[in-house]
Specification:
12 helices, homodimer, alpha/beta, four-stranded parallel beta sheet, Rossmann fold, LacI/GalR-like_sensor (chains A, B), transcription regulation (chains A, B), DNA-binding transcription factor activity (chains A, B)
Chain lengths: ~325, ~325
């Protein structure tokens, strides 16, 4: 086996001291001849020398790492969110340690500990399943700042906020305006805070119009395409004119189930989703939904956690990102 | 700021020596009383003590990390592939360092160096854009074993193989059997080896039936939904009866473009894809495609690289995974 190229190997080949190499590679190259600087950089490339990170991070007590925990990297919402984080992290010389918990609490806990073990400087945790005070306890005791999305924090902290309640309101107003009064909702069995807020906003608007949505019109399933598909039958029981799927993945699953039930969207039944994943523009009919700025949410989360890492005592900051209703083809106007 | 809980803190609280704590937490607990062992574990949980990983990994010169580089974590094929890697890694006490290069060569190179800096024990690189000998050079010089998928390796090495040539053959035979002779292919502008093999298998079968597919019937685009959508117009120029999309994402993009062109699938035009991402079962009509065992491919890649990390001198191993054609609704039998 080849051994890792060391700074000594490089110095020997360049015929200079280890100190010289170290200073040049750390950007302190003004005290050396242009020729030497060039030679050292050239040899670094040729020999593939990479400074040893663990030695560095032990000195700094920092891995220049942000631990990122999401429930499901298969959901395009989260893969865009991750790309937003990645882009800011990279610009700042950090890398994200990405973990998908697959909605499994044991895995979530395992990855939380791994992030600490690997000296993550901070953490971003999206849609945690674990009890938030459990997470808070572990991370606080290890002095690791963190940022939660989709869950209420234990104490004050930095926040990336999108107004989920308002998103629910927008959809409800839109459906009512199109004449829909008999509506079914398909949501998660164990909804996180953001989902609860969406639903509350939605129900409040219906109630304010004197229209009520009974408990049996709220169907619980998993937040996936398959979850939506499986929920179809129950969602159709009360013969709704429209269905509100709490995320787009569920809506895509309902599309299939409704097609198999021999009904047409939107002629026989209307559907709205939530998230605006790219797929919503490709399905037929295209899906009316709430656009969430997933990439920007990732960027903001990364920026806030980096600022917090650099200054633990700075005042808490809250970033609020706008959402909007994107009208496409999946809702029929049934006002006669 | 709270400081990271140390082993000394824990020992003090447990009223035992640091050595005792260390041995108990390393599983050497048979020399201590049950009460002591229980107390130490209990306090570890309560205090959130996590052993310092960088110190450990400096001693072992191992980060118990597998660097994983994929072009696009938004493609469900790769997110399943990653979950396969994750599952094997976790069972073996490793974690994957996941990097998405977004098909950007500079980013790919950056992440390659980051993996080395962070003492990755091995790497799995899927669909690399960079020159393979460049990758080989950097990783070899740093003594890091790696496994490539979708590209030919520079020298002999471990392999996870699916027979892409055969996949192309299966699709061609299927289309010909359904009466399709005028076919357009939509592929990547810079195809990796696996895509080239798919295409060659496909073209060879057509040629063996005395049917030729001219160069202008091969449309180049990006391997994404948007790429497929943009390619639609050109794909329809020669008035094909069927289109072979080199991956399912392209096929989904074509679905939209074809719908907007006022044509129906499969009545007016048939489509086949490649990968069998979960979406293929949800679109209407469901997509006929080649099933790739993406999760198992990730598992096999992780198993092979872990074996290689543990024994550099073991004989090279090649794992071949089966593919199959999944017949759904997107191809019409046009034999009269």
């Amino acid at each position: 086996m080849t051994k890792k190229v060391t700074i000594t190997d490089l110095a020997k080949r360049a015929n200079v001291s280890v100190t010289t190499v170290s200073q040049i590679l750390n950007g302190k190259d003004d005290r050396f001849s242009e020729k030497t600087v060039k030679k050292v950089h050239q040899l670094q490339k040729e020999m593939g020398y990479v400074p040893d990170f663990n030695a560095q991070s032990l000195i700094r007590r920092s891995g220049r790492t942000i631990g990122v925990l999401v429930p499901n990297i298969n959901n395009p919402f989260f893969s865009h969110f991750l790309r937003g984080i990645e882009s800011v992290a990279m610009d700042n010389g950090y890398i994200p340690l990405i973990f998908g918990s697959n909605n499994n609490q044991k895995l979530e806990s395992y990855y939380l500990f791994e992030s600490i073990r690997r000296a993550a400087d901070g953490m971003i945790i999206a849609s945690a399943i674990s009890d938030v005070s459990y997470i808070d306890n572990i991370l606080n005791q290890n002095g690791i700042p963190y940022l939660l999305t989709d869950q209420a924090p234990v104490a004050d902290g930095d926040q990336v906020d999108v107004n989920n309640y308002h998103g629910g309101e927008l959809l409800a107003n839109y459906l009512i305006q199109k004449g829909h009064q008999r509506v079914t909702v398909v949501t998660d069995q164990h909804p996180t805070l953001n989902l609860k807020q969406r639903l509350t906003g939605f129900l409040d608007v219906f109630r304010s119009h004197g229209l009520s949505i009974a408990d049996e019109q709220i169907v619980e399933t998993e937040l996936t395409k398959l979850g939506g598909y499986h929920a179809t039958k129950q969602a159709l029981v009360h013969n709704p004119t429209a269905i509100f799927a709490l995320n787009d993945e569920i809506a895509i699953g309902l599309y299939r189930g409704i097609h198999e039930a021999g009904l047409r969207i939107p002629d026989d039944i209307s559907i709205v989703g939530y998230d605006d994943i790219d797929l919503t523009e490709y399905v037929t009919p295209t899906l009316t939904t709430i656009h969430q700025p997933s990439f920007e949410m990732g960027e903001s989360a990364a920026k806030l956690i980096l600022k917090r890492i650099q200054d633990r005592d700075r005042p808490f900051q809250s970033v609020s990102l706008p959402i909007e209703l994107v009208e496409r083809e999946s809702v029929k106007n049934i006002n006669s």
